[in-house]
Design brief:
Distance between the termini: 23 Å
Order of helices and strands: HHHEHEEE
Structural class: alpha+beta
Number of helices: 4
Number of strands: 4
Strand order of the largest sheet: 1-4-3-2
Radius of gyration: 13 Å
Strand content: 5-15%
């Protein structure tokens, strides 16, 4: 999969966030910047990079409502075919290893 073909960023700042190699990357912006999409792209890139069976990741949001209405739908959309969601456990099992909580 070529991640460059899937990316349609809105700005240079969004690109910087996506390609960040820093241990902590934060997008602190107003509404409609593309934080959700940028975060999903960033996570997917790292899920490709770290593929060991014991690698794990976590998806968070500021509220449960945002998690369910925005963050998780975007995560599922961009990771379709890359693993399997176990809804009852709230776990996404990456094909080949790794879990996203």
């Amino acid at each position: 999969m070529d991640l460059n073909q899937d990316i349609n960023s809105h700005s240079d700042k969004q690109d910087q966030a996506f390609w960040s190699e820093h241990p902590i990357t934060a997008l602190i912006t107003g509404i409609q910047f593309g934080k959700t999409t940028s975060g999903v792209w960033w996570l997917k890139r790292h899920m490709h990079k770290f593929r060991a069976k014991d690698d794990s990741f976590i998806v968070t949001a500021p509220t449960y409502k945002i998690l369910n209405q925005s963050t998780l739908p975007a995560f599922k959309k961009f990771n379709s075919g890359f693993g399997r969601m176990h809804e009852t456990k709230a776990e996404f099992h990456v094909n080949g290893g790794g879990i996203v909580y």
